[in-house]
Write a structure and sequence with these properties.
The chain is an alpha/beta fold. The chain has twelve helices and twelve strands. Bound molecules: pyridoxal-5'-phosphate.
């Protein structure tokens, strides 16, 4: 072999006696085959075999298997973002003439996808009250192929009666999918409560460090997995093994991060609920939160994201008070080590249950800073927002 060939042939080295606790990052576009017959038969390797880097590497398969184990799923597939995980479920299940039901509190880009992408392609979308429970039966007909849940709901934190909704959907032959990003499998396992698909934005708590974008879908029915993989192959999407490796690392510390963030978030939520600037606090573990009883029934705990509805009189002071915060960063994509605060308005995103309160909603994601620093920063904010007497 000459030098230019040596440059592109990696010598095989022994792996004997090498044992590391880290999952290796296997990068690949091409998969090579031991002989011509193996190459000719590559499509018979099935969805668990390796055929092309886009369809999986040992690194991505390790993350998939770990998430499957946590959810009690048969298989998991990885997508380049949480939103991609949602749209791939919809694209795999819905054909022209079909109908999908989504909650009024869905992650707003889901509504956008339904209105601007699915609808022009002949798929109807019906928005429902997230607290509808078993009454969802009235909205389901023979065309309804998918009922989507997000619990708790984006920003306003309504916890859904998943069992009642799933039973109603299944009674009419519709599939059930759930966005479980807030809870992670450590706090809620939707497949045990009637979901056919559980989707998560690994971007948030699994990644945990605000440095990657990734989504997952876990399922028990292998036919559904095949439909998801077929859709992904048709549109040509897969994930980077480097992102999967970051998620594998994040997963190792997710338990302690969540426990700490959940505890701090609940303490702070309790402390701020009676402050003069605050109308009410929306946290699934507090009795005033819609669906609190379902949270108690179904969830093993609370993560670190909750919201506070401000009194409308705080509005003039809000921008300056937020900009003066020293520990909290202003931003939307939560779940990392840094605490975030985001001023939100949901009025335009609610079509079935109008949001009538005028005060801004502050969505708060508690991170890993010293809780005393977080308290001081938040108390200064709420003090600056106190209505003048
Ligand atoms: C962030 C988020 C998503 C989207 O995830 P991306 O990876 O940012 O696309 C979906 N659902 C919920 C509940 C989220 O918080």
């Amino acid at each position: 072999m000459r030098d230019l060939s040596r440059c592109v042939h990696h010598p095989a080295v022994s792996q004997d006696g090498f044992a590391s606790l880290a999952v290796p990052t296997y990068r690949a576009s091409t998969i090579v085959f031991p002989d011509a017959v193996a190459y000719a038969n590559r499509r018979y390797r099935g969805p668990d075999g390796y055929s092309y880097g886009l369809h999986g590497t040992p690194t991505t398969r390790t993350l998939e298997a770990q998430l499957s184990a946590l959810h009690g799923a048969e298989r998991t597939v990885l997508l380049p973002s949480g939103q991609a995980a949602i749209t791939v479920i919809f694209l795999s299940v819905l054909l022209p003439g079909d109908k999908v039901l989504i909650p009024d509190t869905a992650y707003p880009p889901v509504r956008g996808f339904c209105t601007n992408y699915m609808k022009p392609r002949g798929v109807d979308c019906v928005v429902y009250d997230p607290m509808i429970g078993a009454d969802i039966t009235a909205l389901i007909d023979a065309r309804t192929k998918l009922v989507w849940l997000e619990s708790p709901g984006s920003t306003t934190m309504e916890v859904q009666d998943m069992r009642a909704i799933a039973d109603a959907a299944h009674a009419s032959g519709a599939l059930v999918g759930c966005d479980n990003t807030w809870a992670t499998p450590l706090l809620f396992k939707p497949l045990d409560h009637g979901a056919d698909f559980v989707m998560e934005a690994l971007t948030k708590y699994v990644g945990g460090h605000s440095d990657l974008l990734l989504g997952s879908i876990s399922i028990r029915d292998l036919d559904l997995r095949q439909r998801l993989k077929d859709t992904m192959r048709m549109i040509g999407i897969g994930v980077s093994p480097d992102d999967a490796a970051l998620a594998l690392r994040g997963l190792e510390t997710m338990g302690v991060r969540l426990a700490h963030m959940g505890r701090t978030a609940l303490e702070i939520a309790r402390e701020v609920q009676d402050l003069p600037a605050v109308e009410r606090v929306l946290h699934p573990a507090l009795p005033g939160c819609p669906g609190h009883d379902f949270w108690k029934r179904d969830f093993a705990g609370a993560s670190g994201v909750f919201s506070t509805v401000l009194k409308p009189e705080t509005e003039p002071a809000l921008e300056a008070a937020l900009s003066a915060m020293r520990i909290f960063a202003i931003g939307a994509s939560w779940g990392g080590t840094r605490s975030l605060i985001a001023p939100m308005s949901v009025k335009a995103d609610r079509s079935v249950v109008p949001w009538t309160e005028d005060g801004t909603i502050l969505r708060i994601s508690i991170g890993l800073e010293d809780p005393e620093d977080l308290r001081a920063d938040l108390m200064a904010l709420f003090k600056a927002l106190e209505p003048a007497r």
